[in-house]
Automatic annotation (TrEMBL):
This is MsnO8 family LLM class oxidoreductase. The lineage of its organism: Bacteria, Bacillati, Actinomycetota, Actinomycetes, Kitasatosporales. The keyword Cytoplasm does not apply. Residues 1-302 form the Luciferase-like domain. GO terms for molecular function: oxidoreductase activity.
Length: 334
């Protein structure tokens, strides 16, 4: 099993965004030392709880701080940007770290105000043209425009011999099917929609065209590991409480400490399953190293993938680093 990380640059309680960014780059060094396969940086805007609003910048910093681990975006929110500019950015990163850059593409809303602020042309209603944008990305990378297309004369790849790997990120069957048909790798957000993981990843494999990343899939999960099942469950309360805070307070919500989470959550929320129960996958996996390893083995077997990408919203940076260490030791003996 391959292990990878998706890093939100979460802002720890009583800390700030500059420190969160330093921790996010340090996470890449730790992940490389522990044998993780890749680290991806998320894109979140107007968020008090996360500092990663520009994954390209963190990718560049992490790539220069490491030498082996793959580094990428999880994801660039393509609905906000020009495909050509995204290609230029990631070819520049690929030139800086050849063979180690992943271009993860997704789409999401940060709310109407942020969406409007990110747009250049605010006089035209937004449209959902994600599939067309992805195909334009691929055409820029592969020289795939017809000769009479106005973009055919552009060559952003000139002088750059390698290409970033292109991935689609999503939480639905439609995005999985699109990725498969385009021959792209697909990363499924199991921490958003755990119930859809099996259907979506199997659909991706069934439609894979065999080029680029081909049939490769990633199962992305929220995972917390501690020395005991009880301690891991306790640490997992931070994410549950943060989700509740976001629902109440929007983007101003801050990451709670475990003690704050214990006061804010109901007993039912604290007791929510953190392992597969009656065939149902939980929103978070939490437990001792052996418990988590057993859960991940069941899940990867069910969806037919060999890579798990971990999201770990743990309030204390030291506990988060320990969780990642325990997971690597349990899965890879590192």
């Amino acid at each position: 099993m391959k292990l990878s990380l998706v890093e939100l640059a979460g802002v720890a309680p009583d800390s700030d965004k500059p420190q969160a960014l330093k921790d996010a780059v340090a996470a890449a060094r730790q992940a490389e030392d522990l044998g993780y396969h890749r680290i991806w940086y998320a894109e979140h805007h107007d968020a008090a709880s996360a500092a990663s609003s520009a994954p390209e910048i963190l990718i560049a910093l992490a790539a220069t701080a490491t030498s082996r681990i793959r580094v990428g975006s999880g994801a660039v929110l393509l609905n906000h940007y020009s495909p050509y500019k995204v290609v230029e950015n990631f070819l520049l990163l690929e030139a800086l770290a050849p063979g180690r850059i992943d271009l993860g593409l997704g789409r999401a809303t940060a709310g109407p105000v942020v969406d409007l602020a990110l747009r250049r042309d605010r006089g035209v209603p937004p449209t959902d043209d994600f599939a067309e944008q992805v195909q334009e990305i691929l055409a820029h990378l592969d020289g795939g425009f017809p000769a009479d297309h106005p973009f055919a004369r552009l060559d952003p790849t000139a002088g750059i011999p390698s290409r970033p790997e292109v991935w689609i990120l999503g939480s639905s069957g439609s995005s999985a099917q699109m990725a498969g048909r385009l021959g792209l790798g697909y990363a499924f957000a199991g921490f958003i929609n755990p119930g859809g993981a099996i259907r979506s990843l199997l659909r991706h494999g069934a439609h894979a065209a065999g080029s680029r990343s081909g049939r490769v899939g990633i199962l992305s999960l929220s995972v917390v590991v501690a020395d005991t099942d009880a301690e891991a469950r306790r640490l997992s309360w931070t994410r549950t409480a943060l989700m509740a805070r976001l629902a109440r307070n929007g983007t101003r919500a801050q990451v709670p400490t475990v003690e704050e989470a214990a006061r804010e959550l109901t007993q039912a929320q604290k007791d929510a399953p953190t392992v597969i129960t009656d065939g149902r996958w939980p929103l978070q996996i939490a437990g001792s190293p052996q418990t988590v390893r057993d859960q991940l083995e069941q899940m990867t077997k069910a969806v037919g993938v060999e890579e798990v990408m971990v999201q770990d919203m743990v309030a204390d940076p030291a506990a988060r680093a320990h969780s990642r260490t325990l997971l690597a030791q349990a899965v890879n003996g590192r």
